[in-house]
Each structure stands twice: as C-alpha cells, then as structure tokens.
Write a structure and sequence with these properties.
Two copies of one chain form a homodimer. By secondary structure, chain A is α/β, with parallel strands linked by helices. Chain A is 42% helix and 15% strand. Chain A has helices at residues 16-23, 32-49, 62-71, 87-98, 116-124, 147-157, 177-180, 206-210, 224-231, 242-258, 260-280, 305-316, 342-358, 367-378; strands at 5-6, 55-59, 79-83, 102-106, 129-135, 137-138, 143-144, 161-165, 184-188, 199-204, 284-285, 294-298, 318-319, 321-322, 331-335. In chain A, a hairpin with an 8-residue loop joins strand 11 and strand 12 (294-298). The radius of gyration of chain A is 21 Å and the shape is globular. Chains A and B meet through helix 1, helix 3, helix 4 and helix 10 of A and helix 1, helix 3, helix 4 and helix 10 of B.
C-alpha cells in the first residue's frame, strides 16, 4: 500500500500529522476537548469559505451535503435551474428530480465552460426560479465554470438563490462567498482540505436563511437549521465523524500557516506544471477554462484511457483517475487538489511519460518532467509558499 | 488526551490496530485494494448481523441510517407505529413526522420494557400499518426491549415491516435477523464494532425489498437501492468514509477471531460486572431488562448526576455519560459496548466509587471493585474469551 501515490482529484493524500491525529485515542463528541477542536474547525472553515456565516459540517459525502443544500431551501414543486456540463453538474438535476421539482437543465457540452448569456436567457424567460445550481469546478471535465459572471447573471436576472458546488474549488480557487453573493456553498473534506472523506460542508448566506420555506424538503438527518443551532455551540446534532474532524483540525491549521493566497497559488502552480507537462508530451488538454484542482486530458489516439490508468497504477503505483460516464475511454484526470508538493507533481508527470512510452506513445524521455520543472523554476520565489 | 478513558455507550474505544490502519496512507475508494477491504467488511457485517441479505454501509451517523431505513420503505401518508420508551425510540417518531407520515406512538415509560400485549392491541385496531419501529437496546435508559416477543406480535397481528434500531444491540446481544424475521436492522460503526463514528449500517430483508413502494420517501444520498446495487460490486455509490472502513475491517476481523458467541458473552459478563458493582456501592439500577451495552443507574439522593459525570471526567479521566432529556439530572450511563477489557470495567467502577465518596456518598472503599472482580472470578473459564 505504501508504494501507491494518490494522484486523483480526491480523495487526496492526507498529511501524516492529520493521519496521526486519527491514530490517537478517540475522544467523545460531547466533551470539552471536542468542543475546542470543533470551534477551531468552524473558524477555519469560515476563513477558507471566506464567509461570516456559519459553515455547517455534515457527516456525509459531498453529494449528501449538496442534497442538504438544495432540499433545505426548496419547497415541493419549486423550480430549479441546474447548470450542467459534467457528471457532477448534472447530478444536481437528478437530485432535484428525486424530489419531483421542476427542473430546468442548462445544457453545457462536457468540456465547455457554462455561458453566462445562456443562463441569462433561461432566467429572463422565467419568473419563478427558486434556485440556480452551479458546479464551480467540474471534476469530471476539469473545467472551472465562470462563477463570478454566472453569479452576476443570477443576481441581475432573478431573485433565485445561488447554490454552488465548490467541492473541488473551495480551498483551490479564490471563492469569496460573501463578496460574490453566493447563497449556499458546499465543500468536502477529502478535497483541498486534505482530510479523509466523510465530511461535507455547507455554508449558508443570511439571505438563504431568511428565505428558508416552512415546507422545505430537508429531511431529518440533513436538517440544516438544527445543525446550525447545535454547531453554534460547537456541537453537532448527531454523532459526527470524529476522526475526520480531528484530521481536519490539523490540515486547516496547516492551511492557515501557509496562508490563503499561498494555498491558492500553490494549487495554481501545480496545475500549471501539470498542464505544461502533458502538453509537452503531446497530449491534448480537455476542456476550456481549466480548474486548478484537476487536469483533464485526452488519451492519445489508439491508447484507451483505462489502459493508461491501469498501467499507471499497476506498474508505477500512481493512482490517477479515468474519465466518467461517456468519457470513460477517452479521458485521463490528473489530480492536484490538496496538499500536493512539487515532488508529487513531478512523480505524476514523470511516471505518466514513462507509462505512455511503454504503451507506444512517442515522446522523448524527460520531456514532461523538464516542462514541469521549468514552471517551478520560473515561478518567482516570493510567490511560492514553503512546502507543507 | 491519553489520560482519558472512553467509558460511554459509544463512541467507544477504538482498538490500536484499527487506529493505526487509519494512520496509514489513504487509499482510493475506486481501487482494487478498497474493493478487497470492502468485500471483507460486507461479509463480516453479514456475519454479525446474522443475515444472508446485503448489509448496506452508509457514510452517516446511525440516525441517518435509520432515517434511510424508514424512508426507503414508506410512501407519503404511510402509517408507522413507533415503539417509544426513550430518546432514541421517540426520535423515530420525529423522523416520521418530518415526512408527514401517520404516526402512532406506543407510549412506554422511560425505564420500562415495551409490552408486547400493548403493541398487539395497537396493531389489532389498525389494518393499515406499513411499518413498526422498535429500538432494541434503548441507549438513553439502558433497557433491552423484548425484540423476539415484539417481532412475534408484529408478524401475528399485522403485515407491517419491522424496522429495528439495533445501534447498541447488534454485536452485543444475539440478534439473529433472518431467524427473527426482522425486515430492516440498523447498526452504527462506533458501537459494538469499535470503529470510529461515521458509518451506519442497514440490513434489509428480501421481503422489504419486494415491498419497497415506487413512491418511497428515500432521498438521493440515502437511496438504498442504488447503494445495494453498487455495494454488491464491493463499491459505494458515493465517496465513503474510507478511514472508518479501514478501521472496521480490523475490528470485524477481531470479532471473527473472538467468535460471535464469545463477543456476546464478553458483553454479558462486562455488563453483569458493572451492574453488580454499582449495586454493591448502593446505587439503584434504572430500568427493567437491562441491555448489555449500557448500564443506566440513578444518581444517589442529593448528588446531581452531572456533578458525578464532570468529576469522573475532570478528576479521574473517565468519560461516562449522563442522562438525556428529562433524565439529565438523575441518570448516569456507564458504557460497556465495544472492545472493553475487564480492566476497563474495573477502572470504571473503581473510579466511580472513588468519585462517589469524594462527593459524600457513603460506601466502603473497594466495594464496587470487589463486586465486579467476583463476577469475573466466578465466570467459568471456558465461557470466557481471551482478551482482545
């Protein structure tokens, strides 16, 4: 197991100190010790979500958290506009359909960035939209949708709440929730936070709370009002994933030490190094407006993507991701979200070029690695955070 | 932190090897390595749930899992009979009300065991009951409700599904799910399983699957059919709490090594030692039909329970639980669910007697400890499992 490198877009490697925090004796969630930890975690989440509002921690995956984010602010029959363009964007339409909501899907071709004008047209036609959902960083395509412009459109053309899936953008890109007027912003522990999976985060604007309908569709476990009340007292309504909270306490502290700008810059630089490397080795980048969380790239002609993913894993111990749904035979997804060091990126791109050569793709040895190194060398030293 | 002993009815101490499994590098949930682990976990869960059906693992607390257990098998307006008698039993009525179901609460005084004849009367009056919920071991009162008799009544008097909260009974008491005709049985990772909190388990009978209504109330994240499909392939539908699954793999293996009968016997003996000790020191046991997961005991006259809980924690590093809801000033709850060794129980009862004396309760030094020791000494050696 120790020979494998997690190089997927989440779950992402958990720093040793965070793993060691989970190896200590378990603490009780109704203890003062847990309250102290949870107080720090709540404050750290507000800092990285860039909000004065509470960021609610749920013990669930990001999907559960986004379901909570939708259902708690919608009534039976509400109209939801879902901005698609990938597996995750489209998933929120499935959630809405599960609740028999009136779903308007804004179709976006996989790999394209959502067009704010298209959203404006949809909203101009309708008076009754309760919520618009946007997946900021679409993990299935590597696209970063233009959140600022989409948020402007939502605010200009409607009174709808804006719910944003920031699962692979919060902690990677600058997402100033309050400043952008995002109403609900969702994150997940196993992404930029570098904690193990099992916690979802939901930050809710004052406006969304004011407008929460009495007959909202939130269930019992995912009742955000109850959680908000309990969490304001540094407690959770139900027994939380204590181990992940302990790990998250460590990794949020690491992020604070590093500084928010430096965390974003580290992600930007690792993403740039990855993109430059795959381009240098002759692969075609997939998707407009690349996210700094994940680089999606088309497998070379004649080599199916799963073959590369398998060989990367089996021969080089490098766990990258393939494509999802209809892109599964074409796409490779290289993760650089979380506490990745430059050496991790160099490991990833050098094993990728070796693997591609094994499979008959022609490229000079060292090309990808050299390209990634140049990105790091050229980065101004003052912009570069110390390695975590 | 290392000086604290978790002696509450869950979360319960996590064995070192399980904690060390979480300290290893994280693995990806879409990897062969995870599939292997999850296959073992699924099989171990079937073994301890005593069922041939799939036991579905959800990343949530036990409450989330029980909500899933109810909503996936009920339609809008369904009638649910909820057997009360404590905080958890009554919680399932709150869940049902959240979904506007027709809720019939069978009132049971806290501390009493549910009377099967009372349930028979309720069911005899109604044709239309879709589900009966029973909390087998009621953690708030320490009562073990008579599941066998209640199951008989449900099967004789109705065609309702029987959903059982086994969160603090599975792995403690013998709950042969298939044999008893339980339709849905729910457990939680932080209880007898000795893993950290964050996973809930739902075992579902073939009968319940056959009768699952098309318009059931299960949400998206808690869609048990999707999970069942994915988990039959040793995968989860959404990113699971990987760390807890790794820990659970270790503790299920420990349970298998120990043997199911021995696990139950260890719990029985630790419970008997605890009950005998608190009785010896002059405290009154609370509740009929005590559960082997938790001993509920009334605080002595003049000493409020929270004072004892706080002093146990602050002075002796022993984390026991107080009462819940209206019992909060009266009740102490001593946990012995999970991988408790005899030394843990002796630590608990000896610090309790010391603490009680500190607070003015008269008892000869060593009384409780001696009583617990006698229970262990008298236990036939062949019945006693080796310490885990």
């Amino acid at each position: 197991m120790d020979e494998h490198h997690l190089l997927a877009p989440g779950p992402t490697p958990v720093p040793e100190n965070a793993r060691l925090a989970m190896a200590k004796r378990l603490i009780h969630h109704r203890s003062d010790e847990f309250r102290e930890v949870f107080r720090r975690v709540r404050s750290g989440l507000q800092w990285i979500f860039q909000t004065d509002e509470d960021v609610i921690t749920l013990t669930s995956s990001g999907t559960g958290a986004f379901e909570a984010a939708m259902t708690n602010f919608l009534s039976p029959g509400s109209t939801v506009v879902v901005v698609g363009g990938g597996k995750f964007g489209e998933r929120w339409a499935d959630v809405a359909r599960r609740y028999d909501l009136d779903v308007v899907e804004m179709d976006v071709e996989w790999g394209e960035a959502a067009d704010p004008a298209q959203l404006a047209d949809i909203l101009a036609d309708r008076e009754d939209v309760s919520m618009v959902t946007v997946t900021h960083s679409e993990t299935s395509t590597g696209v970063l949708h233009p959140l600022e412009d989409l948020a402007d459109v939502v605010q200009r053309e409607s009174s709808a709440l804006l719910a944003v899936d920031g699962i692979t953008s919060v902690g990677v890109h600058d997402v100033p929730m309050d400043e952008l007027g995002v109403d609900v912003l969702v994150g997940g522990s196993q992404k930029a936070f570098g904690a193990p999976p099992g916690l979802g985060f939901v930050a809710v604007s004052a406006r969304a709370w004011r407008r929460q309908p009495d007959d909202h569709l939130g269930g019992y476990y995912f009742d955000l009002s109850r959680e908000r009340r309990r969490q304001s007292q540094d407690q959770t309504a139900f027994t939380p994933g204590i181990s992940q909270v302990l790990a998250l306490d460590v990794t949020l502290d690491m992020m604070r030490d590093e500084g928010r700008r430096s965390v974003f810059e580290r992600h930007r630089l690792n993403a740039e190094a990855t993109r430059t490397a795959v381009d240098a080795v002759g692969l075609e980048l997939f998707g407009a407006r690349p996210s700094n969380a994940v680089t999606a790239v088309l497998a070379p002609d004649g080599i199916p993507a799963p073959q590369i993913v398998d060989r990367m894993n089996d021969t080089y111990g490098a766990v990258i991701a393939g494509g999802q749904k209809h892109m599964s035979s074409e796409l490779l997804r290289l993760g650089h979200i979380g506490f990745f060091r430059r050496t991790d990126i160099l490991t990833m791109v050098s094993s990728l070029e070796l693997c591609l050569r094994d499979l008959g793709h022609s490229a000079d040895a060292g090309t990808a690695t050299a390209a990634a190194q140049r990105v790091y060398t050229n980065a101004s030293h003052q912009d570069v955070p110390s390695e975590p």
